[in-house]
Amino acid sequence: MKTVQPIRDHAKIDAMKKALLCKSERNYFLFVLGINVGMRISDLLPLRIGDLMGTHLVVQEKKTGKRKRFFINNQLRHEIEQYTVGRAPEEYVFPSRKGGHISRIQAYYILNDAAREVGLDNIGTHTLRKTFGYFHYKRYKDVALLQQLFNHASPSITLRYIGITQDEIDDTLADFFL
């Protein structure tokens, strides 16, 4: 299994949004929601329109069984309102043409196709969550809060997960030469 990375560049995030929107509004919204709430793909895909209507997105995490609340800020609320206009509360947020919601595998292909188009590699469904974590950490520098958000056992796991540990190692080697 390959290790996926967060997207560390705002320009690449914008390029991904553009590439996904060209294909479909659903694919674009999958990316936008994923990088803005930091949920696992297994918790994102089965969401229904009604789940997005409150001030918080509340889910029972499949992996941990824990109940999590994700605040929906004004910018994300605007995206949600645009995407859900005219849709019934019981509809899946990410519907499949075959019925039900798209699969994890389909989400992977959607993200990978767009990534290839914009010149990114090491992208997968976890990239959404890792990108959220990476930028949250860069902005707030609060690994304890991020550790709690992700339900990780230690700060070192969180930093390694979002790629900060590798970034710091790389930085120490950038100008190291004997």
From TrEMBL:
Highest taxon above the source species: Bacteria
The keyword Glycoprotein is assigned to this record: no
Pfam families reported in the protein's UniProt record: Phage_integrase (PF00589)
Keywords: DNA recombination
InterPro entries: DNA_brk_join_enz, Integrase-like_cat_sf, Integrase_catalytic, Tyrosine_recombinase_XerCD
One GO MF term: DNA binding
Key word DNA repair present: no
GO biological process: DNA integration; DNA recombination
PROSITE patterns to which the protein is assigned, alphabetical: TYR_RECOMBINASE (PS51898)
Location of the Tyr recombinase domain: 1-174
PANTHER family linked to this entry: INTEGRASE_RECOMBINASE YOEC-RELATED, PHAGE INTEGRASE-RELATED
The protein's name in its UniProt record: Site-specific integrase
Organism: Butyricicoccus pullicaecorum
Lineage: Bacteria, Bacillati, Bacillota, Clostridia, Eubacteriales
